C-alpha cells in the first residue's frame, strides 16, 4: 500500500463498505448474530465451498439449535449430520466444543478471545470470526481470502503477526455495524475480485490502495506463502482423505468389519494402507474399534 493510500483510510473504508453493501451475497449466517450459529458456519466453511455449506448449515442448526442440544447428542449423530461436508474431524471437534461451552459457560458461547481460544477445535481465525460476526467487535479476521487481499495491498509477503496487526488496524471504528460490514466485505472482495488466479483488478473498487498493482503486478505474487493464504490442496482422487471419507460414509450407515476395510476404502489390494488410515480415523475420535468391527462412537 502506498504512503498516500495508507493515509487515506477514510477513503479505503468507504470504498470497501460501499462495494460490500452492493455485493455481499445473502448467506444465511450473515442474517444472524447468534454466536453458536456463527461458530457452526465458520467451522463448516473451513476448506469447504459456501454452496456446499448452506444446506448442511441449515439442517444442522435445525437439529442442534444450541450448544446444549449438540452436546446432549451422541457423537455418532453429529457425525451423521455432518456427512457430505468432508473433513469429518471437524464434526467431532464441534461436538467437543459444544460440550465445553455447555459445561464451562452455561451453554452460552463466550465473547472473550482467550475463552474462545480455550475451546476444543477453535483456533485464532475462528475465535476472531465469532467476535467480529456474532458480537460485532472491532477485530480483524484473516482467512485465506483476506490474507490474499492484505498481502497484495501491502505489496509483500506478510508474517502471521503482521497480517493480524494489519487486519486489526484497518477495521473502521465501531458504529452502524461498520466492523462487521468491513470484515464481511473484505472477505467477499478476496473471494470474488482479488481471486487467487486472474484477479479482476480492472473492476476492483480499491485498486488505488493496492501495492502490488502499483508495481504492475510484478511477479512473484505477494500472496503466495503469505500469512493466512492456504496452499493448494493435493489431489483428492486416490488420496488418504478419499479413503477416510469413504470409511466415514460407510460408518454412517452401520458398523464396518475390519476385514472389509480395504474394499470399503477403495484399496482392495492394499490392506496395510487401509488399516493405517482407519487407525487414524479411530485416533481422531470418528470411530471406535469394537472387536472385529469399526463403528461410530
Quick overview of this protein structure:
The chain has 297 residues and is mainly alpha-helical. It has 16 helices and three strands. The protein has three domains: 99 residues, Helix-hairpin-Helix base-excision DNA repair enzymes (C-terminal) (Endonuclease Iii, domain 2); 100 residues, Endonuclease III, domain 1; 56 residues.
Descriptive overview:
This protein is an all-alpha fold. The chain folds into 3 domains: 3-25 and 139-214, Helix-hairpin-Helix base-excision DNA repair enzymes (C-terminal) (Endonuclease Iii, domain 2, Orthogonal Bundle), CATH 1.10.1670.10; 34-133, Endonuclease III, domain 1 (Orthogonal Bundle), CATH 1.10.340; 240-295. The chain is built from 16 helices and 3 strands. It has helices spanning 3-7, 9-23, 35-44, 50-63, 67-72, 75-82, 89-105, 113-117, 124-133, 144-154, 160-170, 178-192, 211-214, 240-253, 261-264, 271-283; strands spanning 256-257, 288-290, 293-295. A 3-stranded antiparallel beta sheet has the order 1-3-2. It is globular and about 65 Å long.
Amino acid at each position: 500500500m502506498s504512503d498516500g493510500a495508507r493515509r487515506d483510510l477514510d477513503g479505503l473504508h468507504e470504498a470497501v463498505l460501499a462495494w460490500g453493501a452492493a455485493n455481499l451475497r445473502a448467506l444465511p449466517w450473515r442474517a444472524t448474530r447468534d454466536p453458536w450459529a456463527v461458530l457452526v458456519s465458520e467451522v463448516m466453511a473451513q476448506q469447504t465451498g459456501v454452496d456446499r455449506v448452506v444446506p448442511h448449515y441449515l439442517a444442522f442448526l435445525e437439529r442442534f439449535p444450541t450448544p446444549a442440544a449438540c452436546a446432549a447428542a451422541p457423537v455418532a449423530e453429529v457425525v451423521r449430520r455432518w456427512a457430505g461436508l468432508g473433513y469429518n474431524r471437524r464434526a467431532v471437534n464441534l461436538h467437543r466444543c459444544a460440550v465445553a461451552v455447555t459445561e464451562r459457560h452455561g451453554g452460552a458461547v463466550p465473547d472473550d478471545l482467550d475463552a474462545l481460544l480455550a475451546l476444543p477445535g477453535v483456533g485464532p481465525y475462528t475465535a476472531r470470526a465469532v467476535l467480529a460476526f456474532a458480537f460485532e467487535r472491532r477485530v480483524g479476521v484473516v482467512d485465506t481470502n483476506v490474507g490474499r487481499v492484505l498481502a497484495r495491498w501491502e505489496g509483500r509477503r506478510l508474517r502471521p503477526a503482521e497480517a493480524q496487526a494489519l487486519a486489526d488496524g484497518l477495521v473502521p471504528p465501531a458504529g452502524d455495524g461498520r466492523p462487521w460490514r468491513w470484515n464481511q466485505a473484505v472477505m467477499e472482495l478476496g473471494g470474488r475480485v482479488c481471486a487467487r488466479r486472474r484477479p479482476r483488478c480492472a473492476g476492483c473498487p480499491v485498486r488505488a490502495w493496492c501495492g502490488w498493482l502499483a508495481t504492475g503486478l510484478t511477479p512473484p505474487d505477494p500472496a503466495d506463502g503469505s500469512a493466512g493464504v492456504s496452499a493448494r490442496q493435493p489431489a483428492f482422487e486416490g488420496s488418504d482423505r478419499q479413503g477416510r471419507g469413504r470409511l466415514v460414509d460407510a460408518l454412517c450407515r452401520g458398523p464396518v468389519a475390519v476385514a472389509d476395510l480395504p474394499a470399503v476404502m477403495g484399496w482392495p489390494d492394499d490392506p496395510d494402507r487401509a488399516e493405517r488410515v482407519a487407525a487414524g480415523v479411530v485416533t481422531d475420535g470418528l470411530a471406535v474399534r469394537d472387536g472385529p468391527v469399526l463403528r461410530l462412537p
